[in-house]
UniProtKB/TrEMBL annotation:
Biological processes annotated in GO: methylation
Keyword check for Iron-sulfur: no
InterPro entries with a match to the protein in the record: Methyltransf_16, SAM-dependent_MTases_sf
GO molecular function, one term: methyltransferase activity
Endpoints of the signal sequence: none
Protein's UniProt name: Methyltransferase-domain-containing protein
Listed transmembrane segments: none
Entry keyword set: Methyltransferase, Transferase
Source organism: Aspergillus pseudoustus
Amino acid sequence: MNNIVALLAAQYFEQVDPPNLSLPDGPTLISPAIQNAIFSSMFNEDTASPLPPVSYQTRVLKIIIARIEESISDPEEDEILDSLLEKWTTLLSTPKSSALEQAQKLTYLKYTAPSPATTKVSSESTGRRTIITSENRSLILASGTTGFRTWEAALHLGTFLSTTSIGKSLVAGKRVIELGAGTGFLSFLCAKHLRADNTLVTDRDPTLLEQIDDCIGKNGLEKTRIRTGIWEWGLPLQVPSFAVEDEDVAKREPIEFDIALGADLIYDADIVPLLVSTIRNLFDNYSLKEFVISATVRNEDTFRTFLDTCGKFLSFTRVGSQ
Ligand SMILES: C[S@@+](CC[C@H](N)C(=O)[O-])C[C@H]1O[C@@H](n2cnc3c(N)ncnc32)[C@H](O)[C@@H]1O
């Protein structure tokens, strides 16, 4: 796939606001090869599934078609590809959700995992290094959880784990557990692209874990390598699928982990003691060797309390702090 189209497709599957998409210029878009690549990588159910919501697809294709039309100087020579026009007609006749429904609905987002080799989006990276989550960017807090979207701290930690040699060595070949996983973005990254031996994705919210279970299949991952478990901090870990799914995994009991990950978990002073006791529990009872957490520091006092409490039983290094 052409690099310009690869970049556009990567942004499109992350549902970047249409005016902010890196759209090729008109003369480039006129090319039938480019239009064909746009159709097959962004709008064709058979080759690009899961596609973004119909309303989003419609907004993007509208801009693309308008730009092609503006650039047509010779109608005999230049044209809009039939497949794009047919898709446009189908999208127009497909019922759309209301704005309120859209604001509450979860949709599949396809992230492009950060690549250590190059910062450019190549066809190889969009073809192979994707992470599919089920989420809604506009849901800050819904049904009592903040986990229905992937937060910036998870994206930053994902970049650290994928692009630095220290980050990659933390995960490769290791048994990973993620706490407060939300959409499971980091766990999918570890299982799919960072060669984790196995990954346990945990959160306290069963609805989030159902979405993650669905996305395990969407990401083409086997449940023998990544599975979900409920872990509300301060209570026992519940891993219902652990023993029944796979005999080999069951034989590895007692459950042990090499590394635990957490992103954006330090936002509420009330839950810091529970989080810290869970981290301690992991070190004391699950053979944990390292815990890596990324945080958006919303409140310096809460963050300081977390560091001070951890500092009583752990030695830690702060990476990339501002
Ligand atoms: C801000 S979200 C972060 C989600 C994800 N780590 C990310 O960065 O995208 C916080 C997550 O912690 C989970 N959480 C909050 N309190 C928890 C608790 N006491 N036990 C377990 N999980 C909890 C929430 O359900 C939510 O998924």
